[in-house]
Each structure stands twice: as structure tokens, then as C-alpha cells.
TrEMBL record:
Signal peptide interval: 1-28
Xref: Gene3D superfamilies: PGBD-like superfamily/PGBD (1.10.101.10)
Protein name: Peptidoglycan-binding protein
One protein family per Pfam: PG_binding_1
Length: 138
């Protein structure tokens, strides 16, 4: 069973650590949302032999434009974050929320201009933009 004094010390240490963790979690939660940290950097996307670059939200090339929602929009947002200089250029990541709003449209237009060419800028993700997002250069 062991030394009773050692057992009490361990129990007290565990109780103290638990109380500190609980107190920290309660007081730290509001501060965590106040300022973004380095952890806000985008996740990496990877090459999959059958489709090219993917962030594993959507594997197809479904048409997307302002007002679109779903996994294919998350894939577009994640690809822009994880495979381009968007984060470095803009100082923040594009929200990966599956909603193709003004921010996503602006990011798509930026991507089209930078990676495809000015003639491709329309803010719509069709076959040509998907190919560029997936890493196929025309």
C-alpha cells in the first residue's frame, strides 16, 4: 500500500493541480477568443495521386460562386489557406466555414489573379480554377 504520508502528498498534489487547471480553464476561456495566436495558422493540405492537392473536405470539382455553401466551399477555403501565400500576404487565414461570402469571393479573385492570370478573375470556382487550386497549372 505504501507510505501513508507519501500517499497523502500525492493526493494533495493531484487535488491542487486539478484545482489550478479548473481555475485556469474558467478564467482563460474569454482571453483565448480575444486575440488570435500562432495556432490560427492554416492547416496543411496534401497531394493525393488521384486528384492533386486536397485538404480532405471535398474531393470533386463542384462549381462554386457567391452564395454557395457546403464541403466543396470548405475545400476551396482550405486550399487557398494551405497551399498559397494568402495567409502570409493578408496576415490572416480565410475562414473555413463552408460559406462562399464576400471574403471567400475576394480570396478567390486574389487567387485567380495571382495564380492563373488577370483574364481568369471572375470570383467563380469552375473547372479552370479547380485545376489551379488542385495544383494543375494550365
Amino acid at each position: 500500500m505504501g507510505d501513508p504520508v507519501t500517499h497523502r502528498r500525492r493526493a494533495f498534489a493531484l487535488l491542487t493541480a486539478s484545482a489550478a487547471l479548473l481555475a485556469g480553464a474558467v478564467t482563460a476561456a474569454p482571453a483565448a477568443t480575444a486575440a488570435p495566436t500562432a495556432a490560427a495558422a492554416p492547416k496543411k493540405c496534401y497531394t493525393q495521386s488521384t486528384i492533386g492537392l486536397t485538404c480532405h473536405h471535398h474531393y470533386g470539382k463542384k462549381w462554386a460562386e457567391r452564395g454557395s455553401t457546403g464541403a466543396h466551399v470548405k475545400e476551396i477555403q482550405a486550399l487557398i489557406n494551405g497551399t498559397t501565400t494568402y495567409y502570409k500576404t493578408h496576415g490572416k487565414a480565410l475562414a473555413v466555414d463552408g460559406i462562399y461570402g464576400a471574403g471567400t469571393q475576394s480570396a478567390v479573385r486574389w487567387f485567380q489573379k495571382k495564380y492563373i492570370g488577370a483574364s481568369a478573375v471572375d470570383g467563380i470556382v469552375g473547372p479552370r480554377t479547380w485545376d489551379a487550386l488542385r495544383g494543375y497549372r494550365n
